Each structure stands twice: as C-alpha cells, then as structure tokens.
Amino acid sequence: MTQEEIFKKVTDVIVAKLEVKAENVKPESEFGNDLGADSLDRVELVMALEDEFEVEILDSDAEKFLKVSDVVAFLEAKKNG
Amino acid sequence: MALKRPAVYDCGVFFLSTPLFLNKLTGALCGSLSIFESMKNKKSIVTGASRGIGLAVARELAARGSDVALISRGGCDSQAESIAKEFGVRAFAYACDVGDSAQVQATFAKAIEDLGGVDVLVNNAGITRDRLVLRMKDEDFDDVVATDLRSAFLCTRAVAKTMLSARYGRIVNIASINGIRCQAGQANYAAAKAGVIGLTKSNAMEFASRGVTVNAIAPGFIETDMTAALNAEVHAKYSSQIPLGCMGKPEDIAKLAVFLASDDAKYITGQVIGVDGGLNA
Question: Which residues of B touch A47 (CB under 8 A)?
C-alpha cells in the first residue's frame, strides 16, 4: 500500500468514527485539538483501524498517535515493513 | 415492650404478576402507555435468566415490550418460549458460562445479531459457595468470583462497542446487600459483589459521555433458590431483621431493574440502590 492509499483509508475511518469532514483531516491534524477526539474516541478509532487494516495495534503504540501522520507512518511500517 | 410493626407491606399480592392486558388497560385509562410500554422496541440481554431474579427481570422487560435474550449456564429454552408466547415479544435463549471469556464473546455476538442490537444488559448471573475461610478452597473462591464478578466485566465488554457506537445503553448490575454489609462465610461472595459495585462505578464514569448508564441494585433477602438453600436458623435471623417484615420477591428487584433500564432513568448513573425491605437502612 502506498502512503497515499493508507492516508485515504485512515481518513475514511476518522470521518466515520469522529464525525468530522474529510477536508478537515490532514496529516498534521492532531486527534485531540483538531479532531476533537476524547480518550474513548481514540480507543474506538484504534479498534476500527485494527479491523480495517487487519493489524494489531498495541496500547503502547497507540499512545504515541498524536497526529494523523503518526498513524499513517505506523501503518505504513506495519503493512510494508 | 416491643412495638408491633404495622403491616404496611402486603407481601406478594401486587407485584407485576398483574396480567399484561390489565397493565395495558390501566395505561390506556391513564391516557398514556409510557409506563407499561416503557421498553417497547428495546433489545435486552439478561444473564442468569433461567430462574429467580434473572427470570423475573427478563419477564418484566418483556412485559413492557422489550425483545429479550436470556442467557443461562444450563440453557433456558422453555423460559424464552413462554415469554415470547405470553408477552408477544421476540425471546432468544442461549446456554453460556458467563465466567468464560470465549463463550461470552461468541454468545454475545450471536445474541446481538439475533436481537439486531442491544440497548440493555442486566448482569445478574451469580452463585454462592458459602464456607468459612478456614475451609474455603481456592476453587470456591475462584468460581464465585468468575461467575459473579468476572462475568459482569466480560459481558459489559461484549456490549460496550455496540452501546458506545449507538450513543445509548443501560447496564444494570445485580450486586447484593452482602457486598455492602457482609456475612461470615461469604468471603468469596462478598468480595465478588463488592467488586461488582466498584465495576459499576468505574464503568459509569467511562461510558457516561456516550449516554450509556451503569447502575447496581443491591438486593436484600429475596425468595429465590439461592436463599432457599440457606438453613432455617439463618432464615429466621435475617427475616427478623427486615424492617418491612418479610422477604422480598424476585419481582421487587425486576421492577427497579426495568426502571433503571428505561429512558426515564437517563440521569441516574454510577449508583447502588438497595431493594431490601429496609435491611440496610
């Protein structure tokens, strides 16, 4: 998967879970400040990403997700590395 | 001289044994069906539903219009069948050991699919294995904690995703007065039921922002197979202490459980409410 494809898929999950507009989801968007995600949203988001990308995301990894680009980089390494 | 208590509580006459048509009639006469159809179109799961408090809760939910999924270790097909017949709702039955994670996961996935969602979970399954600590075996402790406490966690987790996504849910945990003021010989049961209260409060905090409420009921001395198994001496001792003068019925618990499960209870969460004839007053 290319980085672009991953970003698009991540954006779809974020839009569905956080009820935000796709145009507001940018690589530099922060989950808390920009996308309005609380702790429960983050857990639901991680679980949805696990289903969507068929990967396991440890809590210790998920804790490091501040921005959308963090998630994309993690998934890129996981899927392609 | 001891004062004789006035008989303010007429045991066992007027619980929800009132036939459904009477409920509907009374509701219609009052100009509103809200109380008697308060659970219409809801989907509810009740554990430990083959008898006693669990069965009474399942029946009361169904009487008020909810579809119900009954879960019991030994199965409860006949109970579900008679509920469906009597109340005209959909009723499903599943055999499942709710202390077992894999069984809970599989059973709840099936139940949520069959019901088409889940609005209400009543964690009622429970056992006792009373013994003084000196004689209590590891498995006496572990089995009770698994069935009475771990089950509530496992079942709650199994409905959480659906309820949180739906931004709606009602979880009612059946604790016990013996998780609050405890008895000798119940180290396992008291610890598990006190644990249920802690679980209730923590889950209430965790789910509050999503419109999912979590409350506990602490029944006192209720006429079930569980209390029938106690010896006559314990019975007499307990009964004499109950301010309302008699043991409770499973229906007394069911009434509150269904209220807590209704939309009317939307501003109540993280609470432990006693239904004990005043025993814990």
Answer: 161
CB contact under 8 A, B206 and A38: no
pLDDT by position in tens, chain B (length 281): 344 443 333 333 333 344 444 444 444 444 444 567 889 999 999 999 999 999 999 999 999 999 999 999 999 999 999 999 999 999 999 999 999 999 999 999 999 999 999 999 999 999 999 999 999 999 999 999 999 999 999 999 999 999 999 999 999 999 999 999 988 999 999 999 999 999 999 999 999 999 999 999 999 999 998 888 877 887 888 888 999 999 999 999 999 999 999 999 999 999 999 999 999 99
Which residue in chain A is spatially nearest to B206 when comparing CA positions? A40
Tell me the CATH number for domain B39-275: 3.40.50.720
φ, ψ at B244 (rounded to 5°): -80, 0
Question: What does the domain layout of chain A look like in residue ranges?
Answer: 3-80
Give the pair of three-digit tokens for residue B252: 């007394």
Rounded CA separation B128/B123 (Å):
16
Q: How far apart, in whole angstroms, are the C-alpha atoms of residue B200 and residue B233?
A: 33
A43 in B contact zone (CB under 8 Å)? no
Identify the bridge partners of residue B67 per DSSP, sorted by sequence position.
B43
The complex's ipTM works out to 0.76
Architecture of domain A3-80: Orthogonal Bundle (1.10)
CB contact under 8 A, A47 and B209: no
Nearest to A38 among B161, B165, B209 (CB): B209
Eight-class DSSP state of B262: S
A38 to chain B, any CB pair closer than 8 A? The answer is yes
What angle (nearest 5°) sits at the alpha carbon of residue B65, between those of residues B61 and B67? 70
